[in-house]
Amino acid sequence: MDKDSILHLTFVVAIIILALATGIFWGRYQQNQEISKSALSAKDITEDFLLKFEGINIERALQETSEQVIIPSEAIRVPILVYHSVRPQVKGESTLIDYFDITPEMFERNLVYLKENNFSVIPFSSLVKALEEEKELPKKPVILTFDDGWKNQYIYAFPLLKQYGVTATFFIFTNAIGHKNFLSWEQIKELDRFGMTIASHTKSHPYLFQIKDRNILTDEIAGSKKILEDGLGKPVEIFAYPFGYFSDLIVSVVKESGFKAARSSKKGTYHTKDGLFILRSIEISDDFDAFVKNLNK
Question: What are 90-118's pLDDT values in tens digits?
């Protein structure tokens, strides 16, 4: 191959790389636009609504890059476990989506492990009281939480929670209530009657960090609280940040909205009174070895 041919080939390759890079950038931009529009309107929500977007990587990235290094002496150790979809294995699903799924069999295996190893599953309110009022907790306390309000949590997880006599907190974004694949009001009220904690996950599950208008943030955060409280006839006091991400502005709005605590996706199991609105957590998947490791380390 002569020199001119090599230069021509190099130029063509460079053009192809540039085109691919531009396509990836534009695709991600369109994804961000799509999720913002979809979240705000809550129309045509499917089970993969949240999982197919780049934003879900924020949650995973926070878990992988934010593990606690320095543990304050006054910290309380309470693993807060985060589950998303609980459903049978879906053939051909992506690794990313699979990361946020757990099969019913694996979830039951988690519950059996907790029982056989003398963990005490506590409601979220017990952790808040322990941090605010120095109330004593049982030995080996752990909190179970479920994000987004998927209907499969009611179908597959709720019966197991009742079977093993444990409670959990369900973080629900209210625009999705009653939509296909999401919890209905009747199901939410049944969870509440059986001692589950119903908590807020905003109205539309947006990228809160992209919202600079405080009034819009307040509507998303305080608005979801009011909808849940009106529907249940009782206070809703716990919040979880969509995608687990927060900022000083977001935290201040959560506090002003009347919540007592908020859960993030920063990895860790130790909590302090000063950190009530940035509580750390552990994402749970079908990796049982990781489940055991995170509970015990």
Answer: 776 666 666 678 999 999 999 999 999 99
173 membership: H or E segment, kind and range: none
User: pTM of the prediction?
Assistant: 0.80
The SS3 assignment for 77 reads strand
Angle at 294 between CA 63 and CA 183, to 5 degrees: 65
> Can you list the alpha helix ranges (DSSP code H) found in 134-261?
151-152, 158-163, 185-193, 214-232, 248-256
| Residue 226 contacts residue 237 (beta carbons within 8 Å) | no
> What pLDDT was estimated at residue 200?
98
Residue type (1 letter), 61: A
Amino acid at 190: E
Give the per-residue pLDDT at 98.
Answer: 62
- Give the span between the Cα atoms of 164 and 170, in whole angstroms: 17
Residue ranges for the chain with pLDDT beneath 50: 6-7, 11-54
Calculate the dihedral angle through the C-alpha atoms of 242, 247, 251, 252, rounding to the nearest 10 degrees.
-140
pLDDT in tens, 117-171: 999 999 999 999 999 998 899 999 999 999 999 999 999 999 999 999 999 999 9
Q: Vertex 245, ends 240 and 247: CA angle to 5°?
A: 105
CA angle 61, 67, 70 (to 5 degrees): 150
d(CA 204, CA 212): 16
Q: Is the dihedral of CA 210, 82, 265, 189 positive or negative?
A: positive
How confident is the model at residue 157, as a pLDDT? 98
Can you say how many angstroms the Cα of residue 65 is from the centroid of all Cα atoms in its chain?
Answer: 16
Cα(34)–Cα(206) distance, integer angstroms: 11
DSSP of 8-69: HHHHHHHHHHHHHHHHHHHHHHHHHHHHHHHHHHT-S--TTTTTTSTTHHHHHHHHHH----
